[in-house]
Amino acid sequence: MFGGLTFGGGPIANYMSHAVVSMVERLRHEGRTGFLFANGGFATDNHCIILSSEPIAAARFPQDFDYQAEAEAKRGPVPELVEDYTGPATIESYTVFYGRDGAPKAGVVVARTPEDKRTLAHVDIGDAAMLAFLTDGKTEPVGTSGAVVALGEDRFGWRAN
After folding, report:
1. Regions in the chain scoring below 70 on pLDDT
2. Pairing status of strand 145-152 against strand 87-98
3. 85 Cα distance to chain centroid
C-alpha cells in the first residue's frame, strides 16, 4: 500500500502513478504478477490493480470493477470517534511524518479505547523513544497498549506502557 497526497508528492490521484511505474519496472526485471492497493478520501474509497508481465487467462473484459459496496459490507460498523479521550488504549494504526532530511518529525497514533471506540493521539518529535518504537521494526506497534494523555489546548499525546 502506498500513502496519500502528502506522502507521494502528487496532486489529486497522481500519487498512485508512482506506485504503478515502480511496479512495472519491477515486473520487467524480476517478476510476473504484482498487486497494488490504494485508498482515498478518508480511507473510504478503495482501488486496486493487478499488473502482469504475462497475459492473465482469467481476465475477461469488460468487467465492473466497482467493489466499494462489497468492501463496505465486509468492513462492518465504523467505531465512534472520541476526540477528547484520555486513558488506556491500544494502538490500531499509526503514521510517522518525516522531514525532507529523512528524519522523523512527529507521529499520529490511531487507538481503540477499552469501550472499542476510536481516538487519536499525537507523538511529539521530542519523544525519541516512541518514534523509535514506531519505526525501528523490532516490535510491531499495532496491538500494543499505552495511554492517551492530555497535552493542553485540545491536544492529546500517546504514552507507551
Report:
1. 1-15, 40-44
2. antiparallel
3. 22
Between 2.40.50.840, 3.40.50.300, 3.30.565.10, 1.20.140.10, what CATH number should domain 87-160 receive? 2.40.50.840
Are 87 and 113 spatial neighbours (Cβ–Cβ below 8 Å)?
yes
What does the pLDDT look like over 25-53, one tens digit per residue?
999 998 889 999 887 666 667 778 889 98
The CA distance from 11 to 4, in Å, is 9
Sign of CA dihedral 10, 14, 15, 18: negative
**Helix, coil or strand: residue 121:** strand
Residue with cell string 468492513 = 75
- Which candidate, 94, 119, 98, 118, places its Cα nearest to that of 108? 94
